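Lab notebook, bench 4. The sequencing result for the construct came back, and we need a structural model before the next group meeting so we can plan mutations. Quick request posted to the team channel:

Model the 3D structure of this chain.
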Amino acid sequence: MENSKKTTISVIGGHDCTAEVESLAHKVGEIIAKMDCILVCGGLSGVMEAACKGAKSAGGWTIGLLPGKSKSDANPYVDIALPTTIGFARNAMVAASADVLIALPGSYGTSCEISYAFVYKRPVIDLGGWNIEGMVKVSGLSELPQAIRQCLSQRDGKE
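Done. Here's the predicted structure in token form:
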């Protein structure tokens, strides 16, 4: 991908997740890294940590936008920890900093990030069964790289 190091993909999902969702997040992180993109997330546990771990295992870079004031709050797989001091309001930053978002299962915070993505006109790929109108539907990980490429090609020239 041309200019891929500038391409950021936010992975959003819950703090608490099942082993199945954790595995999914890890694989999503791997795919992002293999596409030579930078993974952005909220920097904490659950889906965020698993996605970061997956990206790191594939040689990728990760950025964590943390709700508090301490870099030490970041999960161990975050390369660049950015404390925001703004709590859940950092969800807006997670959405705004992405070229594409990938939504895994989560709760209110994830739903909030999906809403912000729509406000900022960022494409959101649904891997969490959200079934919200306007999201890009994929039936599994095998479709994810193509969906990311499509979202990026539609975005190019529109910002």
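The two ends are 18 Å apart (CA to CA).
Will bring this to the meeting.
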